[in-house]
Amino acid sequence: MDRRSFLKVCTTVALTSPPLLYGVLRAGESEFKPYKKALLVNKDGKPVTPEEIKPSKEYIFFYPYRSTPCLLINLGRRADPVEVETKDGHTYLWRGGVGPDRSIVAFSAICTHQLSHPTPSTTFINYYPEGKKAKIAKRDLVIQCCAHMSAFDPAKGGKVIEGPAPFPLTAIVLSYEQGKIYALGTLGKEVYEDFFDVFKPDLRKLYGSSRKARELVDVCTVLEMEEYTEEIVRC
Ligand code: FES
Question: At how many degrees (to 10) do helices 3-16 and 200-207 cross?
Answer without folding.
Answer: 70
